[in-house]
Design a protein that fits this description.
alpha/beta; elongated; 51% helix; EC 2.4.1.-; seven-stranded mixed sheet; golgi apparatus
């Protein structure tokens, strides 16, 4: 028994010894293997260092950025499209690399340089990758916008098709298909409005598109006739074009009507100034400096106007830009109705060292006695053409008999530079100095045949249809040459010729009648010689008597064209609000009103009382 217990204990102890010794043996073997590996690596490092010390000239050269004869490049590292660094090598560059080996000192410098270049190329690669990512995002966004526009266009097409199908239904039809189409139209129109506001299409909008397509498919089965659909669409297109034509005619009529009316504020201002004028004593109504009115050595300006606010603005611009205001003499000619108001305004707002004269056309007794029946201007529904002030410019030598030269300004201009240089312009033996309007790319461009009837043989013989035209608004006139050549009589002869040939064309009515699709601008069977207004008869009166001025003297188009170049406006000596959209009207172009407003005294009590604000 004891023997069995003893053998059992020995067996257990043996097992314990084996379980303890075996792991120790295994671990010791592994440790010895690791120690041998480390010693081998250490020996290799030592051998390496010895070899490097013995053969410095045999050190492997480092890569650097260079260009060989073929222009190929080796870079230390670049970035691929995924942003990972990779080494790029030039095949066939080993010979070049061998040639670049040198001393250890040079190798160290080359190594540092190559590392710096590697860093630079790495940063450049990152920046290029970022830029490429940004450009890709922008392209994706622009593509999404294009898709949105296409979807919206599809919605519009669906709405048009649905409305066409509704026209096929009987009047007052209340069928299920009609109700469904009407509902789908409302839903799509609401979806298009929402997408326009938020610049994106919602999932609901796409669902409504699919629903509309299903409804249209049902309607196509109910109304399968394609020819009837095409006919209905053509009728709808014709009706839409007619509506557009009517709306444009109405808009043109309203614009013309607004340009011919007097704003309530201007009427109020005229009444208040007239009332104040008649409250003055006769001796208080005189302007100072009247002895300068006939001095030919001064700078004389003429302005013909019946608009108080326009006169005030143009006179203020002349004085504020003049280098020698004491040499400025301004002559304002108006009608008897507006004479008291204009005089009173300049009595309340005297000019700075300049001289002003205000006259009425009714005070010129010599006009009726000298010319009599010759002064029968054309009749027109537009008062701008029928007013005697519009044709008074052709009598400048008689109105100012003592003057040699004069500058005529329209009341819808603003002076931005000193104009005294005009008196030294070489007129080249001509009477009229004006800016020409020959360039087709400018808003002021006009051909002679646009206002003059060249189908008349007399007109074709006397004038060249390709002749370079000019503009009223700022004109320098040599009154001495005018008198010698008797151009006022030439003007009267053309007036008489027109009266004998046919009636004048009402320019305003012609624009309304022939606004779209009109092949000619005349009324009746016979065309007149030219349209109403002073410009066409001015062209023929001063034909071959006009010298072109530098374009910077006078820029036109601010009253009818929204694309006048900003640089031209800033460089111009005079800017002209020609057209119906005057700066004192609500229909005036807002972007150009700033140049006019700074010459209007909006803080004046009368303007404030009449609610005239900027």
């Amino acid at each position: 028994m004891k023997q069995s217990h003893r053998s059992t204990r020995i067996f257990i102890l043996c097992l314990l010894a084996v379980s303890v010794l075996v792991p120790i043996v295994v671990l010791s073997g592994r440790i010895k293997h690791l120690t041998s590996d480390v010693s081998k690596e250490t020996d290799a490092l030592k051998l390496n260092s010895i070899e490097q010390e013995d053969g410095e000239g045999l050190k492997e050269p480092t890569l650097e950025v260079y260009k060989d004869e073929g222009g190929s490049t080796v870079s230390f590292s670049t970035y691929n499209e995924s942003g990972k660094s990779e080494v790029s090598r030039n095949p066939g560059s080993n010979a070049n690399l061998a040639e670049k080996n040198g001393s250890n000192h040079k190798a160290k410098k080359d190594n540092q340089q190559s590392q710096q270049e590697g860093i630079v190329s790495t940063s450049d690669g990152k920046e290029e990758f970022k830029q490429a990512t940004v450009e890709h995002d922008q392209n994706a966004r622009s593509l999404s916008r294009k898709e949105i526009d296409l979807k919206i266009q599809e919605m519009k097409d669906q709405v048009i098709r649905a409305k066409a199908y509704l026209n096929f239904a009987p009047p007052n039809s209340n069928s299920h298909l009609v109700k469904e189409l009407k509902l789908r139209i409302k839903e799509l129109e609401r979806a298009m409005g929402d997408s326009t506001k938020v610049s994106e299409l919602s999932r609901r909008a796409l669902q409504r598109m699919r629903a509309m397509e299903a409804s249209l498919l049902k309607a196509s089965h109910v109304y399968p006739e394609c020819s009837a659909m095409a006919k209905k669409l053509r009728a709808m297109m014709y009706n839409a074009e007619e509506q557009v034509r009517t709306q444009k005619n109405q808009a043109s009529f309203l614009v013309q009507l607004a340009g011919r009316t007097t704003p309530k504020g201007l009427h109020c201002l005229s009444m208040r100034l007239t009332n104040s004028y008649f409250a003055l004593q006769p001796e208080e109504r005189e302007f100072p400096g009247q002895h300068k009115l006939h001095d030919p050595d001064l700078y004389h300006f003429a302005v013909f106007s019946d608009n108080i606010l326009a006169c005030a603005a143009v006179v203020d611009s002349i004085i504020s830009t003049a280098m020698e205001p004491e040499k400025i003499v301004i002559h304002i000619l108006t009608d008897s109705l507006n004479l008291p108001a204009i005089i009173m305004w300049f009595l309340l707002n005297p000019l700075r060292r300049a001289t002003i004269q205000v006259q009425s056309i009714d005070s010129f007794d010599w006009m009726s006695t000298k010319y009599g029946g010759k002064m029968q201007w054309q009749s027109s529904s537009d008062p701008r053409y029928a007013s005697p002030l519009n044709h008074l410019r052709f009598y400048l030598p008689e109105i100012f008999p003592a003057l040699k030269k004069i500058v005529l300004l329209d009341h819808d201009v603003i002076v931005q530079r000193d104009l005294s240089g005009l008196w030294s312009v070489d007129m080249k033996d001509k009477v009229n100095g004006a800016v020409v309007t020959c360039r087709e790319d400018e808003p002021s461009f006009r051909r002679m045949n646009m206002l003059i009837n060249f189908s008349e043989p007399m007109v074709g013989r006397r004038f060249d249809v390709k002749a370079c035209n000019w503009a009223f608004g700022m004109n320098l006139f040599d009154l001495q040459k005018w008198r010698r050549r008797n151009l006022t009589e030439v003007y009267h002869n053309y007036l008489q010729l027109v009266r004998n040939s046919s009636a004048y064309l009402d320019s305003y009515q012609a624009v309304i009648d022939c606004l779209f699709g009109c092949t000619s601008w005349y009324k009746g069977s016979k065309r007149p010689l030219w349209k109403a207004g002073s410009l066409p008869i001015g062209w023929v009166t001063f034909y071959n008597q006009t010298v072109g001025l530098d374009r910077r003297w006078h820029v036109l188009g601010l009253g009818h064209h929204a694309d006048v170049k900003q640089r031209d406006i800033e460089q111009a000596a005079v800017i002209h609000y020609d057209g119906v959209m005057k700066p004192w009207l609500d229909i005036g172009l807002e972007k150009y009103k700033q140049y006019w407003r700074k010459h209007v005294k909006y803080d004046h009590p009368y303007l404030q009382q009449c609610n005239i604000h900027d």
